[in-house]
Amino acid sequence: MKKSLILVGTQWGDEGKGKIVDFYSKKFDAVCRFQGGHNAGHTIYKEEEKFVLHLIPSGIFYDHVSCFIGQGVILSIDSLLEEIEQLEQKGINLEDKLRISRYCSLLLPLHAKIDQLREDNKNSIGTTRRGIGPAYEDKTARRSIKAFDLEDNDLLETKLKSLVEYYNYQIQNIHDSEPFVYEEVYSELMQSYKKAAKYFGDVTDTLENIYEQGGNILYEGAQGTLLDVDYGTYPYVTSSNTLATSVGIGSGFPKSIYSDVLGVAKAYTTRVGAGPFPTELFCDVGQKIAELGHEFGATTGRPRRCGWLDLVALKYSAKLNNLTELCITKLDVLDAFDEIKACIGYKVNGEETPFKSRLLHKAEPIYKDFKGWNCSLADCKNYDSLPDKAKDFLNFIENFVGVKISLISNGPNREDLIHR
Ligand code: GDP
Ligand code: IMO
Ligand code: MG
Q1: Residue 380 burial (CB count, 10 A)
Q2: Whose CA is nearest to atom 3 of ligand 2?
Q3: Ligand 1 centroid vs 158 CA: distance in angstroms?
């Protein structure tokens, strides 16, 4: 039986997961998203054409790959339809390739509205304003409209009416804003569902069949470890569990947990939105990383905060995800730096401290300096052809984190990859 793989972000998201899933997909039979929602923005360059996927798995560009959205994903049907339309316009057919769990909790326009109203208030954490937090709240509070509710009209009307009432109370009384009209919410939802209905089906059984017939499955994580609702930099996190260990729940296929785990990390660090970030650079160097790395959010277009690689945080991620291998992306972005740094320890109130997410806002980084290689990595096609200084940097990462680096990405295109 072929081995399956869980791919996760090890930092604060945007590590280049989409590109790596796209690359690996050619060797897999299925790709499955298992958490998050359309807060994700996974960028893929296919023959120089740029695609940004939010809900649809990044394996969609291969004819032989079946794509799944598991029940751990919060589903905006409107966002899904928009994405399907964009892909179809570019000649990519999804009809027999995409299957979505009927057990997904739905994200409705009222979730996005309440997210935006809250973010406009003083306690903003810089969410993607897509409604992800409120939709996960509803799931836990047992208020969600599930995709399967859309097939049972009596139940749907009762549930949806009380959800609209619940949000309208907050919208009007807390935020002094325009309420939703139930009839409009209902008819818009049903119109969208009609177009999307053909994509819903059983995900658990289908994944099991693929697996039992010897197929292999790639589980595509969204966001990153430090945004995990339990183990990230709470409360500056997303509302789902982003760790590899959430794959069993989120995919609905329990044997998914027996997969290898590939962690993706940038050769430096970025973060969108508020929250602690010990290695953040506020000087020209941070600006230079942002410019060379084109560090703007794939979902919201917001500038990403940039800083040096944080190996303490990466080691924490490696442990929590039980990583079996590591992929370092965007190494080429560091081509033009005389000096490169990586954080190898923290000081809190002058004392060396191990990684504790609750103390991160007080952590001052201790750096190790590396000499830059000062040349372009664009033409390096294999590990041996990398400059020695780049190899020194990679070897240090591997030894510090204790996980083998199996893949290095040296550009945004599909072919910009070095195997090791
Ligand atoms: P994801 O959310 O983890 O899939 O990452 P994003 O797509 O949000 O952000 C990663 C960005 O870096 C995208 O614009 C990619 O095209 C780009 N990218 C990925 N790998 C590399 C790389 O090795 N080098 C460079 N220069 N860009 C890369
Ligand atoms: P991908 O999959 C980077 C961040 C937001 C905010 C916090 C909470 O592309 O790596 P949310 O809208 O989820 O309630 O926002 O999480 N965030 C991401 N940052 N990449 C992502 O996804 C993100 N998804 C959410 O910026 O700080
Ligand atoms: Mg992204």
Answers
A1: 20
A2: 13
A3: 44
Query: pLDDT, tens digit, for every residue of 10-21?
Result: 999 999 999 999
CA 117 – CA 133 distance, rounded (Å): 12
Confidence band of 1 (pLDDT split at 50, 70, 90)? low
Look at residue 2 in the predicted model and tell me its pLDDT.
64
Near ion ligand 3, which residues have CB within 5 Å?
A: 14, 41, 298
Where do the domains of the chain lie, and which CATH numbers do they carry?
Answer: 5-100+200-262 (3.40.440.10), 105-196 (1.10.300.10), 266-419 (3.90.170.10)
Q: Which tens digits make up the pLDDT trace of 283-306? A: 999 999 999 999 998 888 889 999
- CA 44 to ligand 3 center in whole angstroms: 10
In a 3-state reduction of DSSP, which class is residue 119?
helix
Other Cβ atoms within 10 Å of 361 Cβ, number:
13
Report helix, strand and coil shares of the chain as percent, to nearest 5: 40, 20, 40
pTM assigned to the model: 0.97
Q: What is the DSSP letter of 120?
A: T
